[in-house]
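Section handout, structural biology tutorial.
Before the tutorial, make sure you can parse a SMILES string by hand: atoms, branches in parentheses, ring closures as digits. In the record below the ligand is adenosine-5'-triphosphate, and the chain has 221 residues. In the tutorial you will relate the predicted structure tokens back to the input. Do not try to memorize them.
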Amino acid sequence: MRSILLLNAKGGCGKTTVATNIAAYYALKGKKVVLADFDPQGSCMAWLEARPADRPRIRGLAAWHNTVRVPKNTEYLIIDSPAAIGGRPLAKLVQRADSILIPVLPSPIDIRAAEHFIGKLNALRRVLNTEVKLATMANRVRENTLAAEDLDDYLEMIKLPSGKKVPYLAMLRASQNYIRAAEEGLSIFEFAPARTLLDRECWTRVFRWLDSQRSLPALQS
Ligand SMILES: Nc1ncnc2c1ncn2[C@@H]1O[C@H](COP(=O)(O)OP(=O)(O)OP(=O)(O)O)[C@@H](O)[C@H]1O
Ligand SMILES: [Mg+2]
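Predicted structure of the complex:
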């Protein structure tokens, strides 16, 4: 089973948006997908409730208040986490994951918060001695803005304590398609390709990474 964790202590950076889109992407490919919602706001569970019955099924787990029992035949476990996460809850989620995706918004405040959070995460990974793989993605980007350039520069240069570069996978556009998809329990991959072409293109490297050994802990590769 692949487990993919969406993480960033900063609120509103796109954790739920990325989690639901990844869940639907693999469900569309016929995979058995479970979406574990660790956020008491229950955004993923609300998204699943809105999801039309004729769409590829994704199982939801209201993980913030129930013990998580992942069904045995699960192929993809997508984990959505709450904002302001830290301490033991953070350590527990990190231990569950093969791969961690960190979305960051283009703003000075979000960049500073990401810097702080990635530092904390690296310290935690050392303590936990976990090989979980990290990658970043820019989200809600308006092209050709200064804020987008600053975020691009920052994400390009993030390194692990070992000096190895943290993969920077994507720059997701600010797009109404994500907002509409969120309302309807859908993903951008379920809208007409012509309408979402530019958005879909942004995801190519995300799925290439997730589908490669590079996103898996060394022990499993
Ligand atoms: N690329 C995008 N383009 C347009 N809107 C977006 C995009 N990504 C996210 N949004 C919108 O931004 C808002 C915040 O996104 P989301 O809920 O995914 O963030 P979050 O990190 O899960 O927030 P929280 O920390 O509160 O759980 C939502 O209304 C979402 O629809
Ligand atoms: Mg959320």
